[in-house]
Amino acid sequence: MKTKTIQGHPFIEYKRDFFSEAEVTKFSKEYLDFFEKRRTVRDFSNRPVPLDAIENIIQMASTAPSGAHKQPWHFCVVSNPDLKKQIRAAAEKEEYDSYHGRMNDEWVKDLEPLGTDWHKPFLEIAPYLIIVFKKSYNVDNGQKSQNYYVNESVGIACGFLLTAIHQAGLVALTHTPSPMNFLSKLLERPTNEKPFLLVPVGYPAEECYVPDIKRKPLDQVMDLYK
């Protein structure tokens, strides 16, 4: 492996397999077709999932780019039934308040096609809950150090996380009860971490339904400037 020094820091030569134009188009279409099958799922099975798979998924999420390579994220994996029960109770309290006054009428109406309400049984049924925390700053040996583009970096890592979950043949739900401070308390997280996303992970229930909705076509999400 070739190495060189740039501005006093070590660099290694980037190597990987690259493909022809035809292969790039073929593989990108196959990937698109595979991810067209990804859906947000609320009907989970309690079928066990190997912990090794969850660990691989989180390591894959951690390959995401981040500001100054600070990697300002932490993934908490919860499988303990009692803790999942506590998380569900706290989340449902916040969700009940949201559906009964916090959310305006337009927001509630926009959610109607998804069939959601304040009940969140999947928080107990799914074998794993992955809670993603963003690290506003780092603390090493009692010393604070700055992180950069934290929301952007953690958001990208969450995208990688969902991609890895689907690639592994599992399903997920992005859950954001608001506020989410109860997660910091229940999991006893340090003050430099704030909850960003709660993701139940597992297999779909034997009888599983998702809303009959469509994604926007390409001409509504892309403009080409030549």
Summarize the structure.
By secondary structure, the chain is α+β, with helices and mostly antiparallel strands. The chain contains 8 helices and 8 strands, in the order ββααβαααβββαβαβα. The chain has one domain: NADH Oxidase.
List keywords for this structure.
226 residues, alpha+beta, NADH Oxidase, four-stranded antiparallel beta sheet, two-stranded antiparallel sheet, 8 helices, 38% helix, 19% strand
Helix fraction bin: 25-40%
Under CATH, the topology is which?
NADH Oxidase
| CATH architecture group name | 3-Layer(aba) Sandwich
Regarding CATH, which class?
A: Alpha Beta
Order of helices and strands: EEHHEHHHEEEHEHEH
Overall morphology: globular
Give the topology:
Elements: E1 3-6, E2 9-12, H1 21-35, H2 51-61, E3 73-78, H3 81-102, H4 105-111, H5 122-125, E4 128-135, E5 137-140, E6 143-146, H6 150-167, E7 171-172, H7 181-186, E8 193-202, H8 218-221
Antiparallel strand pairs: 1-2, 3-4, 4-8, 5-6, 7-8
